[in-house]
Amino acid sequence: MKVGIVGHEAAKFTPETEKQARDLIRKLLEPAYCVVSGHCPLGGIDMWAEEIADELGIPKLIFPPKDLSWSEGYKPRNLLIAKNSDIVHCIVVDKYPPNYQGMRFQFCYHCKTDTHIKSGGCWTALKCKRREFHVIY
What we know:
Structural class: alpha/beta
Order of helices and strands: EHEHEHEHE
Number of domains: 1
Oligomer: single chain
Strand content: 15-25%
């Protein structure tokens, strides 16, 4: 199975939630014969999935953004992840860490919920036929 793993950048995790995310990624990759990732330049879920795939000897299909814009970089990259995955798992956190300095949103406008903070990974997962959302508390 080609498993897409998407979610938050590294800055949105605490050491504890990073550990939880890495443990979850390992479980989600058990049925994988290929990991599909977007190689986020901000680290986090994408890069952790790639590192764990290397540890487990699972081949990777990587779609880095061509640039840091939505229209020419992230959108086409995210569509390639969705198109090339049998399932996309989106791993997000429920709240910002206290030291987070980036943009903040009151809710995830992709999912129309306040149960987790906004992630472009949600948009990507919603484009895939089979998707699962995992919120780390």
